[in-house]
Amino acid sequence: MYRRILNQSFGPGGWGLMPRGEIIYQGESDGAQMVAREYALYCEGRFVSQSLGEHTFFGKTNQQYGNACESAKSSALRRCCKDLGISSELWDPKFVSQWKDKYAVEVWCQNQRTKEKKKFWVKKNSKQQFSYPWVAAA
């Protein structure tokens, strides 16, 4: 969505996300791994914003690592776009509460590895599949 809005506003190639450092990789004791990288958003050749993107993942394949790096980039883009006011209503608690009341429900999920239980929001009437290690609790 953010890329589409930037393309509509500045045209394809009218904006860019530039890496501002190396990828930071950190393994956790529970098997989770995290990647992070700082990016800067430029629009029409001018600096707009800078932010850190991160993503936690499980597994050790290159594909998972590559997907995690792309997710970190998307996370940074989302954060940078806040400075342009793109989707700023998503940071308004009143808007979020009203949207959840109208379109979403909470579902209890359980972590398959740790047995931790946690609530997740999903759209009403959605056949949502949760990402590993989370599954809908019975």
Automatic annotation (TrEMBL):
InterPro entries xref list: Mgm101 (IPR009446)
Subcellular location: Mitochondrion matrix, Mitochondrion nucleoid
Magnesium among keywords: no
This protein's UniProt keywords: DNA damage, DNA repair, DNA-binding, Mitochondrion, Mitochondrion nucleoid, Transit peptide
GO molecular function, one term: single-stranded DNA binding
Residue intervals passing through the bilayer: none
Domain of life: Eukaryota
Swiss-Prot/TrEMBL GO biological process terms: interstrand cross-link repair; recombinational repair
GO cellular component entries: mitochondrial chromosome
Pfam families given in the database record: Mgm101p
Cytoplasm among keywords: no
Family: Belongs to the MGM101 family.
PANTHER family to which the protein is assigned, alphabetical: MITOCHONDRIAL GENOME MAINTENANCE PROTEIN MGM101 (PTHR31404)
Protein name stated in the entry: Mitochondrial genome maintenance protein MGM101
